[in-house]
Amino acid sequence: MTALMRSLPLFIGLRYTRAKRRNHFISFISLISMLGVTLGVWALITVLSVMNGFERELRDRILGVASHVTVTGANGGLADWRQLDSVLLDRQQVLGRAPYIFAQGMLTKRREVAGALIRGVLPDEEVRVSEIARNMVDGQLQLLRTGEFGIVIGSALARQLGLSLGSKVTLVAPRGNVTPAGLLPRLKRFTVVGIFSIGMYEYDAGLALIHLADAARLYRSGDHVTGVRLKINDVYRAPLVRRDLERALGPGYLVSDWTRQHVNFFRALKIEKRVMFIILFLIVAVAAFNIVATLVMVVTDKQSDIAILRTLGLSPRGVMGVFMVQGILIGAVGTILGGLTGVLTSLNIETLVPFFENLFSVKFFPADVYVISDFPAEMHWGDVGRITAASLLMSTVATLYPAWRASRTQPAEALRYE
C-alpha cells in the first residue's frame, strides 16, 4: 500500500499530461512552454559551439603567424642572435626558433598603394615557427634568397595591388635618405615569389615577408635583428616557458609570449561568450515562466480533482508531486529536443551555413569586414551537459510554486460549489 501511494503522484501526473484537457488554451500554453525550452537550449548549444570554434580558429590562425614566445634585447634589438641558441634550444618545450626583423613599409604598383607590415625572415628557419609555408597558394617561401629581393605577400594584399607570381612591386621604407635636395624615401623594387592565404584578413591584407639580409640592407639594421621567435610544443605553457627564459637569460633581454600580446583579445572573447550564455539562457527562463503560468491554470482547472484526491487520502506532498511531474515533463521533453537539435546543428553547421548563404545569396561574414570569413564550430560535451542540467533545474524550480499552491487546496472549500 505504501509503495502504491508513493507511485500514485507519478501515475496521476503522467495521466494528466497524456489526457486531453477540457481547456485547449492550457494545452497551447504547455506547447509554447515546451517549444520555448527547446529553442533556448538549441540556441545556447549552437551559439556556444560557434563561439568555441571562433576562439579555436582565431587562436590557431594568430599563432600560425605570430610567435608563441618572443625574445628581444632590452634596447629593442639583438646584436648576435645565434649566441642565444645554447639557452633557447636547450629547452625541451622549444620546437624551433627563427630570427626576424620587423618594420613597416608601403607597397606600390603604378597607382595602387598599400601599407604593410614587413617581416625579414630566414626561410629555412621560418618554417619551424610559423604556418605560412604550409599556406602558400602560389610560389614558395624558400624562393626568398639573399640579394635577389624577392617578396612573399598575403592573398588579399596581392588582389588589392593587382599582383601575381613574378610581378614587380616597389617597397618604400619609412626612413629616408638625407640629401642636398632634402629627405628622400628609400625605395627598392621587389619581385613577388610567393602568395600565402592564412584565412585571416588581418594577415592576408597586411603582411609581407622578405629575406632577413634584404631587410637588414633596406632598413639599415646591420647585424642587428628585432628578435627571435620561438615555437613551443604546448601553446598553453607559453607563460611557463617565458618565465623560465627570463630567469635563464637575465635582465638584458625581454621575453614575451602570445598570452601577453593578445591577452585583451582573448579575454574579450571569454567575456563575450559568458554574456552570450546569460542572454540566451533568458529564453529558457521565459519558457520556465510559461511553465509556472501553465501549472497555475492547471491547478485552478483541477480544483475538484485535487479535493477528491485529498479526500481519498493523498497527502499534500503527493499533490505537489502530481503537478511537479507535469512541469518537469514539459521541461525534460523541451530540453531533450533542444539538446538533440543543438548537437545536430553544431556538428553540421559548417555545411548548413554555406547552404543558406547560397540559397539566399548572402554572405554572413564578409572577409573584408570580419577577421574570419567562414563559420567554424567546436562543440564541447561539457557545455551540452551544463546547459541541459541548468535547463532541467530551472524547469523543476518553476514547478515548485504551482505545486505548493495545489497542495494547500482545502477539500471542503474546493467542493463547496460542485
How would you explain this protein's 3D organization?
The longest helix is centred in the last third of the chain and has 45 residues, at 316-360. The chain has two domains: 2-60 and 265-415, no CATH class; 67-261, no CATH class. The chain contains 14 helices and ten strands. It is of the alpha+beta class. The chain has helices at residues 2-18, 24-65, 85-88, 123-126, 155-161, 201-204, 212-219, 238-249, 258-261, 263-301, 303-311, 316-360, 381-407, 411-415, and strands at residues 69-73, 94-109, 112-121, 136-139, 150-154, 168-179, 182-196, 207-211, 227-232, 253-257. The protein has a six-stranded mixed barrel with strand order 2-3-8-5-7-6.
SSE order and pairing:
Blueprint: H1 2-18, H2 24-65, E1 69-73, H3 85-88, E2 94-109, E3 112-121, H4 123-126, E4 136-139, E5 150-154, H5 155-161, E6 168-179, E7 182-196, H6 201-204, E8 207-211, H7 212-219, E9 227-232, H8 238-249, E10 253-257, H9 258-261, H10 263-301, H11 303-311, H12 316-360, H13 381-407, H14 411-415
Parallel strand pairs: 3-8, 5-7
Antiparallel strand pairs: 1-9, 1-10, 2-3, 2-6, 2-9, 4-7, 5-8, 6-7
